[in-house]
Fold these 2 entries.
Entry 1:
Amino acid sequence: MIASLRPPRRLALMAAAALLAAACGAAAAADTYPAKPITIVVPFPAGGGTDVIFRAVQVRLQAELGVPVIIDNRAGAGGTVGTGYASKAAPDGYTLVAATTTTIASAQAVYPKLPYDPLADLAPVGTLGTTPFVLVVAPTLPAKNLADFIRDAKARPGTLNYGSIGNGTASHLAGELFKQRTGIEMTHIPYRGAAPAQTDLMAGQIQALFDNPTALAPQVRAGRMRALAISQPSAVFPELPSFEAAGIKDFKPELWYGLMAPAATPRPVVERLRSALDKALQDRNLRADMMAKGVSPASWSPEQFGQRVRADIALWGGIARSVNAKAD
């Protein structure tokens, strides 16, 4: 029958048949998914913040999915190496990637040759949680609160230095956003990681630093640095005022942790993963563990996650481009 039709009509029917077969194949695959272990590529070293959070969720997630969930650490170039690797994996739901604000929202602006397109190559599955930023200052600085710090910075424009954990990192961009929101002038001093930045802050070589609560808590508790404000409430620093409460409007920077899959992953598979992640995050013990680590559990749908990605690409990418921030 098809052979007797005119070529355009025959080609259209063949294309429709191919699409139908592909859809049926995807549906069949989703019906049996998952049938083997699932790998989550964490694009950062073992023991780091992202790795710790995903390993906290790992046990509950594999209990919901009924198959082993394996963490594969593939670090390099600020998380872009592992993310690029995962973005090119087979879109079958068996290779996923731990996505973060830095690897997805700001990477395009700070890496000249990114091996993936965050919007075109990856599909949002869902989120695990968010972590805020804390502003800490050197113990030698006289400022006892945020208002003192801003007043001091404005009285001495350009004389205060703020550190970051690297050029183009969220720590750097949060500092630039803070400068924009407050109108103060500070000099950026980039470091290669949190440890050397903290060391120089405690020694008074730099005067301020933005980082996550968990990384800073031990030094603050020991009196080696002073915390002034936090962007969102955190169980790690329940006593700290928010920047907004201290009068800084539209300054609520936060990092998020999410799960993404290669872009062509069938929708039913994405929904299965999202459902399992959502159920895992309802576990009370897991939620308590995450909050103790400075992460507020948050389960966004793929649509909500996608909207947040696009908004943060505009926000963080815009800040990075405005100061010509480039990764080291």
Entry 2:
Amino acid sequence: MSDRQTTYDLVVVGGGIAGVMTALLARRRHPGIDILLLDRSVLGLGATAYSAFLDLPFGHTEAIRSLTARSRAIYRALRDSVPDLPIIDVDMVGVCARDRIEPACERLTDSEARRRWTSCAGADDVTIPGAPHGFAVPPGHAVLENLRATRCTGGLVEALVGALEADTLAAGARTDLVEGAEVVRLSSDGGACRLDLHDGRHVRGARVALCLGPWLPSALGRLTGARADTRVKKVASLLLPSEPPAGAPVVYLFEHEAFLMPQPERRRWLFSFRSEAWDVAPDAAALWLSADDLARATAILRQHFPRGFAAPLGARVFCDAYTPTRDPVIAQVPDLPGAVIVGGAGGSGVRLAPAMAEQGLERLGL
């Protein structure tokens, strides 16, 4: 990208998981095209860097369940072709109040699991092998076993970028990865899209994918004048100092939209819970665990650790863009036929990115 104006077949704006996945799938679907992947900071540094990297077998809507199933199939195929992809299968156990089983079952992608859950709904005293020390299933709750999830052990974006570079080399094509370049304007330019960068350079793309993560609401209007029907919500996790045993499962608490995920490589459990802090700015320096966040998380943990739990080691806090329906946004940018929005994943960017990228490319005719 040495010229002041350069033309690509596809420009991907945003180097998080959705952007990197979009570039990689585009390369594999169309080996000979020229691709530019650019980010205002460092590839994988934004919301993706703070993600719990967990793929769960359920979704709040039919659209999310469909995206989840398709993404899982794409990840499986990637594991076959990218040997160092740091994604592993893990067992998962669901916990839910018995009077909330029906709505919980509606979210599952596994219809067989729904029957398994119903069969064990009468149990009051259930233990979960491999759960965090001190964890208990409260009376009146049910447990669903034999679910499967996948999680990342670190370096997912790096592995995908490596695959993208290897595929580019094998195809004899061109993929430019540009960091520290912010797009300040996106406009139509003679049948293509023109992207003006902060440093005075200009790029043309026959097609553009905007994978803006939590910057979607603010950046879309600034770039194009269009409005995104999204809000930005805080996403928070506590880090609990308890070493998971071998084979420890993910424990999902359906009624709280929370989960405990084993991270044996870091000798801890990650407890992800639902924060209710809305309309926050995607600024890592300004996003902290608040007293309200801590109180919300502690109230949930007390229900499941009646004898108490060790003080958290700290927290991971960032944010993501959410739509009113919680379904992601995969849509054409108004008045720019060659540009699409791929975002609004609602804290599930890693889980949904492959299918979102695939649908975005289909919208672009790629």
